[in-house]
Design goal:
The structure is a single chain. The two termini are 24 Å apart. The radius of gyration is 20 Å and the shape is elongated. The protein has six helices and three strands; from the N terminus they run βαααβαααβ. The longest helix has 36 residues, at 18-53. By secondary structure, it is α+β, with helices and mostly antiparallel strands. Strands 1-3-2 form a three-stranded antiparallel sheet. Helix content is 53%, strand content 15%. The protein has one domain (7-164).
Length: 177
């Protein structure tokens, strides 16, 4: 008796739209804020409020709160980076049905190429702060219709939609045949 095909996630050939990509990135950033960044914001607000009450005295920094928030934010960021590199998704991308893959093999990029994508976006800040927005909107200028931005092209990546397909037992989706 052969086992029934198990439903699995596989990349579709349709490019993910900017709306899905944006909401997925927003979910990822909210996750960092909730799990770590929120503590940093609370600690910073304590310092600001103490300075407002008495501007002549430098308040003590809430070091444990700042340290814990920073460590949690870093842990979430590194985890998301590794998931993105190894599997092609972060939590936000998984929830929105989006996956980043190699433009030719359709396999995950690996962490270093994901880092390269992020560095290209970050480098946009050097162009008067609006360059980052231009890089993030660059998929709109892709004449091929594949919605590949400059950061995608630099890493040889493509952001595709995910489809649930029946995959025979023993085979792995996204590995090419």
């Amino acid at each position: 008796m052969t086992p029934a095909p198990a439903p699995a996630l596989a990349v579709d050939d349709r490019p993910a739209g900017l709306g899905r990509r944006f909401v997925a990135a927003l979910v990822d950033q909210v996750l960092v804020l909730v799990l770590g960044g929120g503590l940093v914001v609370v600690a910073s607000l304590r310092v600001v409020l103490a300075l407002r009450d008495d501007p002549t005295t430098l308040p003590a920094l809430p070091v444990p709160l700042l340290a814990l928030g920073s460590v949690l934010a870093l842990a979430v960021t590194v985890t998301q980076w590794l998931l993105h590199g190894r599997h092609g998704w972060t939590l936000g991308r998984r929830l929105l049905g989006v996956r980043t893959v190699d433009a030719h093999s359709r396999r995950p990029l690996g962490p270093w190429r994901v880092l390269l994508r992020g560095l290209v976006v970050a480098a946009g800040v050097l162009a008067c702060g609006v360059g980052q927005l231009v890089v993030l909107l660059s998929p709109l200028f892709d004449r091929t219709g594949r919605c590949r931005g400059w950061h995608d092209r630099a890493a040889g990546a493509e952001v595709l939609r995910v489809a649930t397909v029946a995959v025979p037992a023993g085979s792995r989706p996204g590995r090419g045949a």
